[in-house]
Recover the amino acids of this structure.
């Protein structure tokens, strides 16, 4: 099937179009029909060689620090045999013709490696053919290399730019020959990021950096609690603030939240500061709304009660209840992970400009098609009147998949009759996030007399992400359960997974590695607790739980299982690969070595997004000062084929520390429905002095199909940390965060 | 709780910095005039002085470790900053990176914002210990009691204690009253409480 | 009311409330968007600039305080130390999302100016005010060491 096709200048208009350019695109299966795509597929994902040789390609995925621009350029440049210096990346806007543009789920490379390779290979074949035709020689005698086609016999050579116009007239080969893996020049190499040289000079444009002529600046006073109604507005003092232009009332959100804005009052001004001062001067009367009684401490107790009772069985093997009754030893533990905020360093920001019934937006979004649809719905205009330009993202972590802030910008700009930037403050960001959900899990294990685990029961209770899309949804989905709970790969004869219901009182969303965060925390902590109960080394015991190399299929045991959207044949749950990263991480951390007093090692391993990561954490506990530090972290990731091992290592370092930071400090709590954390002093992040001095990461070389890279590093971090704390102090941290009172570096043991 | 009261409470719970408690009282020297015994009077006067010295507005920057405290809760300062050379913080993150010569927004500020030297640490000490420390030239910056009085009475950084941003509780009383108490304590023989 | 600002070697007339944080003057009035907003309360360091050569959080620096002073932003940071740091940042591929990195670099410049050969403890203390949610701390530390060696 030929899904690669020529692109006219008109089709690539505004992005890459140039006279005499050679442009190919891919005819993609459009994103879900709900996104408003026409059937059949439009051409997208353009690669264009201009007469001057400059080669441009569109990235339909958002650049948010994972260096996806670089990865895409590497793939194209490799098959195209391009000169790296000539390749430029252009960000694609939100349009269903690009297929799935959601930059989440750790799948940008996973989903596009083959497709982009074939585009590059087709272009290379056509450029060779164009040269062969021009010279009247056999195409097989022509070599494409370093942005030129050469005919070695006659010592002739033509640059790609010189061949572009002729190549553009040739038929696209149906099955272009791909390079052999051994001949890859860019794929699999730690190529330097194309964005970094710009970043270090303060260049590049993030969502907050967009500036348009005549642009006004807005901030929004939002309801203190989700769905709290606005009963009265006195904006007299706000309007009197110099620089304030006007206020705009936004409609109160109705359940379910989806991607609509939460409502409130926007203050539009000549600069951000005037808008902020105007907002401070607003006198707003908010009604209690349905969440006024929400108290996170009380809610935790309610979830604990639910987890103490049998839930809905979601996977079952053997007879776990029976085996628990007769086990020589029974171990039980309850784990809690609070709500977390994404807290990307760039708070949400979006710019909108109306022209008649058309609106053009610029925003730091991970899912521009969702933004497009949300803006069209909120403003009552057809989808094709909405353009979403994707800026760089100053971190996303899942927050910027939710375009509520773009909807705000579009609404306010329309009312203001001028281009408007809506800037979120950090306080806004922490109060009105789509929070990582809160969870309670109760695990019960049965040990035989020899310490082997013979029964495993896991109950998980959490308000589901589905509550954001369906009002009143309280049931954990299969998609959330398969993130570390129903896909548990342990070789125990009797296994039972149950879920319980929980109601959401805030907007819930996905945060880097999603349900894997709390499931891996509970499962990998409990594995170490069983090891302690069996008086065994935790690493050895973990390997025993993982068992012999085999492929696990939860579907035979009552679980619905979608394997992150990929087939189990191509991406099995491979316990051999999981055990291998455990062994490698342990070996790199020199597991078993003599440690200084107060030090301890902890290990955890987890498969998520089709990749395998094991992490060892070393902690040091000073009982005199009660100071806990993390001198070292060793992490090993098997993500199959990796396009850029350099950025994969970066993600492994950063994703691990992201997990440690959340485990140490991360907690969003609420009283009377109001989030209690206002800014970074209350929602602490790891800082330089707390970051481990030793961070050794290793990305396994593998020919396996590419797995995810951005998210898999995070889940093992928290359990490895708490297992290390146990090893160092004997204290088992089952409720996160480790430091709950905001008092850094103090642990009550 | 009635429904109306509940709604008021809910409305007040909107996100904004918490209000600090009202300032504590500070008695003037006359309050202690009845104490005929000079030593008893001096000790009582210093107890009153210590209400100010050990208040978070003052003691937070006289920390026992290289790291200052902050807020009324006396929490370790975030970010982690240290005394550094001359109490001015570490290179790259000196005090004046974030603190200016005046308060600004919620950021505390005063001229020459810096930490007291380690030997002048007050955190965790009793009034008596602080008193003996203040009298000891090795631990008071080589000052005479007269010079200490001048510091307390006139230093603009001390004055900050009563001019903190709105979300912080000011030190008790006033700088003038503190100076008067300290003067009365000197005149009563500068005896220290236990 | 106009204030004269001297930023990156050029004079600017700014018509803004003198109480406006320098951050918003730089970003909204002068278009110098390399200086980032991350918290507004001197907790994250993304807005770090230099005022007369010393690091300042521009989010808690009022415009009135920098009248007549020389302000340097990431766009105008130059000299051997700044360039050595940039080179190390590129060589070690420090940034991920990059949003905090202007502030990190401005703090690192201030650190190396004061301590040409910092040890790890100096880096802990000097860089503690700069948050990075991508957690690139390990590479920032290595890049500061590398730049210090390169400056000689």
């Amino acid at each position: 099937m030929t899904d690669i096709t020529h692109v006219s200048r008109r089709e690539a208009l505004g992005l890459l179009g140039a006279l005499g350019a050679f442009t190919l695109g891919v005819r993609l299966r459009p994103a879900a029909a709900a996104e408003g795509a026409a059937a059949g597929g439009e051409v997208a994902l353009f690669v264009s060689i201009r007469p001057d040789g400059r080669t441009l390609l569109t990235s339909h995925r958002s650049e948010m620090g994972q260096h996806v621009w670089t990865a895409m350029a590497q793939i194209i440049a490799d098959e195209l045999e391009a000169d790296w210096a000539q390749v430029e990346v252009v960000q694609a806007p939100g349009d269903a013709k690009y297929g799935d543009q959601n930059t989440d789920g750790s799948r940008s490379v996973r989903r596009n490696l083959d497709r982009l390779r074939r585009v590059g290979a087709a272009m290379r074949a056509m450029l060779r053919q164009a040269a062969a035709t021009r010279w009247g020689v056999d195409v097989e005698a022509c070599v494409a290399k370093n942005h030129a086609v050469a005919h070695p016999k006659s010592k002739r050579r033509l640059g790609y730019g010189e061949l572009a116009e002729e190549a553009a007239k040739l038929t696209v080969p149906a099955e272009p020959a791909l390079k052999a893996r051994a001949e890859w020049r860019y794929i699999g190499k730690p190529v330097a990021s194309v964005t970094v040289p710009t970043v270090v000079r303060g260049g590049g444009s993030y969502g907050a950096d967009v500036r348009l002529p005549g642009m006004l600046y807005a901030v929004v006073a939002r309801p203190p609690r989700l769905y709290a109604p606005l009963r009265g507005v006195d904006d007299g003092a706000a309007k009197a603030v110099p620089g304030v232009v006007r206020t705009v009332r936004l409609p109160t959100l109705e359940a379910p939240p989806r991607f609509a804005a939460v409502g409130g009052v926007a203050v539009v001004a000549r600069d951000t500061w005037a808008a902020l001062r105007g907002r401070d001067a607003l006198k707003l009367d908010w009604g209690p709304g349905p969440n006024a009684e929400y108290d996170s401490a009380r809610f935790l107790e309610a979830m604990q009660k639910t987890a103490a009772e049998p839930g809905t069985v979601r996977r079952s093997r053997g007879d776990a209840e029976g085996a628990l009754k007769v086990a020589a030893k029974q171990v039980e533990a309850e784990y809690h992970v609070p709500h977390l905020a994404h807290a990307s360093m760039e708070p949400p920001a979006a710019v909108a400009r109306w022209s008649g019934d058309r609106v053009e937006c610029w925003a730091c979004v991970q899912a521009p098609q969702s933004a497009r649809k949300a803006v069209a719905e909120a403003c009552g205009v057809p989808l094709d009147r909405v353009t979403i330009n994707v800026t760089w993202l100053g971190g996303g972590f899942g927050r910027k998949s939710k375009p509520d802030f773009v909807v705000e910008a579009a609404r306010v700009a329309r009312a203001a009759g001028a281009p408007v930037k809506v800037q979120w403050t950090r306080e806004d960001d922490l109060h009105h996030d789509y929070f990582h959900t809160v969870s309670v899990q109760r695990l019960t294990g049965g040990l035989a007399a020899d310490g082997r685990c013979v029964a495993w029961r896991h109950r998980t209770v959490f308000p589901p992400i589905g509550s954001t899309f369906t009002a009143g949804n309280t049931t954990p989905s299969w998609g959330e359960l398969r993130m570390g709970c129903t896909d548990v790969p342990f070789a125990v004869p009797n296994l039972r997974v149950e879920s319980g219901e929980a109601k959401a009182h805030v907007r819930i969303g996905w945060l880097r590695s999603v349900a894997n965060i709390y499931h891996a925390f509970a499962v990998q902590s409990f594995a170490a607790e069983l090891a302690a109960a069996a008086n065994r080394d935790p690493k050895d015991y973990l390997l025993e739980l993982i068992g012999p190399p085999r492929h696990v299929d939860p579907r035979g045991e009552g679980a619905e299982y979608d394997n992150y959207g990929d087939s189990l044949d191509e991406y099995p749950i491979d316990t051999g690969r999981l055990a291998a990263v455990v062994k490698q991480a342990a070996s790199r951390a020199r597991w078993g070595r003599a440690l200084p007093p107060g030090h301890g090692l902890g290990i955890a391993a987890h498969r998520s997004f089709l990749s395998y990561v094991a992490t060892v954490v070393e902690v040091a506990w000073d009982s005199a000062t009660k100071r806990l530090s993390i001198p070292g972290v060793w992490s090993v990731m098997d993500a199959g084929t990796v396009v850029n091992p350099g950025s994969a290592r970066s993600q492994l370092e950063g994703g691990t520390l992201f997990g440690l930071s959340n485990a140490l400090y991360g907690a969003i709590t609420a009283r009377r429905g109001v989030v209690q954390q206002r800014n970074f002093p209350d929602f602490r992040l790891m800082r330089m002095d707390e970051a481990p001095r030793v961070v050794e990461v290793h990305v396994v070389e593998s020919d396996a199909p590419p797995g995810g890279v951005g998210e898999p590093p995070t889940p093992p971090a928290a359990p490895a940390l708490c297992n290390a704390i146990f090893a160092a102090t004997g204290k088992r941290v089952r409720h996160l965060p480790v430091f709950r009172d905001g008092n850094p570096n103090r642990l009550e043991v | 709780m009635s429904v109306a009261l509940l709604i008021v409470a809910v409305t007040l719970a909107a996100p904004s910095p918490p209000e600090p408690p009202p300032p504590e009282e500070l008695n003037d020297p006359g309050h202690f005039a009845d104490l005929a015994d000079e030593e008893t009077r001096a000790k009582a006067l210093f107890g009153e002085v210590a209400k100010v010295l050990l208040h978070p507005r003052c003691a937070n920057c006289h920390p026992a470790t290289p790291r200052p405290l902050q807020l009324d809760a006396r929490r370790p300062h975030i970010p982690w900053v240290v005394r550094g050379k001359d109490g001015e913080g570490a290179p790259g993150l000196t005090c004046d990176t974030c603190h200016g010569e005046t308060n600004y927004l919620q950021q505390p500020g005063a001229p020459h914002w810096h930490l007291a030297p380690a030997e002048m640490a007050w955190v965790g000490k009793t009034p008596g210990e602080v008193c003996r420390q203040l009298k000891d030239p090795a631990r008071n910056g080589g000052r005479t009691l007269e010079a200490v009085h001048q510091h307390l009475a006139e230093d603009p950084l001390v004055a900050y204690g009563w001019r903190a941003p709105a979300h912080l509780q000011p030190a008790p009383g006033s700088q003038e009253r503190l100076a008067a108490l300290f003067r009365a304590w000197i005149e009563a023989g500068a005896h220290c409480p236990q | 009311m106009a204030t004269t600002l001297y930023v990156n070697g050029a004079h600017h007339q700014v018509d803004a409330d003198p109480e406006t944080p320098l951050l918003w003057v730089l970003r909204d009035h002068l278009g110098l968007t390399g200086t980032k907003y991350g918290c507004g309360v001197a907790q994250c360091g993304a807005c770090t600039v230099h005022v007369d050569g010393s690091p300042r959080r521009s989010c808690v620096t009022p415009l009135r305080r920098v009248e007549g002073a020389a302000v340097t932003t990431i766009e105008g940071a130059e000299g051997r130390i700044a360039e050595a740091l940039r080179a190390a940042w590129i060589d070690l591929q420090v940034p991920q999302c990059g949003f905090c990195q202007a502030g990190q670099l401005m703090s690192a410049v201030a650190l190396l100016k004061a301590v040409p050969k910092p040890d790890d403890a100096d880096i802990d203390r000097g860089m503690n005010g700069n948050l990075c949610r991508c957690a690139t701390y390990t590479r920032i530390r290595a890049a500061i060491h590398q730049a210090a060696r390169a400056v000689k």
In short: The longest helix of chain A spans residues 108-135. The radius of gyration of chain A is 27 Å.
